[in-house]
Design brief:
Largest sheet: 7 strands, antiparallel
Number of strands: 7
Number of helices: 7
Strand order of the largest sheet: 2-1-7-6-5-4-3
Helix content: 25-40%
Order of helices and strands: HEEEEEEEHHHHHH
Structural class: alpha+beta
Radius of gyration: 23 Å
Strand content: 25-35%
Length: 247
């Protein structure tokens, strides 16, 4: 869930803060709220000051950052209403986007639905947003850099493993493996932990075993050449030996 929220947060920042091209923009006050099925709590609405390129409020393609993995397609204008579809691809997983925006030049309201999978878990969420022009010129390129810095900071926090215990490595394994891991350069450490510590940690082993049976997630055991059956057999023999010694 933590990684899904991180991905969605990154997408939201990209969509409302990163212009397609550097240009003189205008200041807008944008309020957005996310609602996700299965989330145990409601996320509060967030309001931010956004530098938006002129016309960006009426065309979702303008809000796509150059580093975005999302593509807006089938954009249709009808008067002051814009309907659009798109998709976001990350590590081979696709999330579909369907949205509608109404605008009058000084304000807009948008409703966007996202469905698909993120890190092996199904996602069905809605992003409702509104904005009003507050005036004043701004540099969209500079704001794009600041937005990217915020995303980078979020990724750095999610990838901080300094306080990880064995169980944390198992639970967050998807961050470190795959063709394009969210936290590159930590696969070797993950594999070392799985090989040396998981066999002796019942909770971590159960978590890994359960994780390996979950569809849609990259296999940590396969990535680290870990023989789960061998470990399971060894643990069973140790447990039997323990019982016999007690008897």
């Amino acid at each position: 869930m933590k990684k899904i929220l991180l991905s969605i947060g990154m997408l939201t920042v990209i969509m409302f803060s990163s212009p397609l091209l550097a240009a003189t923009g205008e200041w807008w006050e944008v309020t957005g709220k996310m609602e996700m099925e299965g989330m145990p709590f409601a996320m509060p609405a967030q309001t931010s000051k956004v530098c938006m390129p002129k016309g960006g409020e009426s065309d979702p393609r303008y809000t796509q950052g150059k580093d975005s993995n999302c593509t807006m397609t089938d954009v249709k204008h009808s008067g002051n209403t814009v309907k659009f579809k798109g998709s976001c691809v990350n590590q081979g997983e696709t999330m579909n986007v369907v949205g509608e925006t109404s605008h009058d030049g000084n304000s807009f309201k948008s409703n966007m639905k996202m469905t698909g999978k993120s890190h092996g878990e199904p996602v069905n969420m809605t992003v409702v947003s509104s904005g009003k022009r507050i005036g004043g010129s701004c540099d969209t390129e500079e704001m794009g850099k600041k937005a990217k810095a915020q995303v980078d900071a979020g990724i750095a926090a999610a990838c901080d493993t300094s306080k990880y215990k064995t169980y944390n490595w198992v639970a967050s394994a998807s961050l470190f493996i795959g063709d394009k891991p969210s936290c590159p350069g930590k696969k070797e450490t993950l594999c070392k932990v799985l090989r040396s510590e998981v066999p002796n940690d019942p909770q971590a082993f159960q978590a890994l075993e359960s994780r390996e049976q979950t569809q849609g997630q990259p296999s940590a055991a396969k990535a680290c050449n870990l023989n789960m059956e061998s470990i399971k057999k060894s643990r069973s023999e140790e447990h039997t030996s323990e019982l016999q010694s007690r008897g």
